[in-house]
Amino acid sequence: MVDASPTQKPKRFYKTASIAQDETGWRVELDGRTPKTPARASLILPTKALAEAVAAEWDAQEIELDLPRMTLTRLANVAIDRAPLTRTEMIEEAQKYAGTDLLCYLADNPVALRERQEAHFAPLRDWAGQTHGVMLMTTEGVINAPQPPASIEAVGTYAASKCNFGLTGLAMGLNIYGSAILSMAVAEGELGAADAFDISRVDEIWQIEQWGEDAEAVARAADKRREAEALGEWFKGLAVGAIA
Questions:
Q1: DSSP state, residue 64
Q2: CA distance linking residue 112 with residue 102, whole number of Å
Q3: How far apart are CA 197 and CA 11, in angstroms?
Q4: Residues 41 and 81: beta-carbon distance below 8 Å
């Protein structure tokens, strides 16, 4: 018999997806058995709400498992398998993003774009400074603006305060938004995940308004928005009875 193609999606092999609690946390169960992460650890979440969200993702699969689009499960795998081993690197990555934070780069022209940027960016920079001591300097165009060391340190302190699940979500936000402040705002419930995605695209949306958008760009934005919405579910689920 010829083996299945490595690109072929695996078949759904279970009837029901549910959760159960034990002394280690909330387990996802497929027909009563807990699935394993790539490192062969059990898929156990720290809160009931987050476990329910992950189980719902498994339950939503139909004939085949669309693993690349199972964002919550992928996040859980990273939080369980990788985050305990790479916390230092993940914290440093958050600091790196803060050093070149998207919300600090303002257009030198046109004035209308700069005004739109600041209408969205300034309140979030103020929030980060007042709430977390992350006070970042702005610049125009692509000129780099060195950020206060104390603010970079504050981002590191914030990231280090998160449990492995919270830190994993923060890291995903960095990649989606290109901004430590936006990722922190979503993690803290200050801003919705989809709203943060729209703010991260202020420049891109401006260009679309001027020149239009092609089909590939529309598809890429839709995929990224879906990831952002899943990240919002992650943080909401984690917030109920969170470890940190």
A1: B
A2: 18
A3: 32
A4: yes
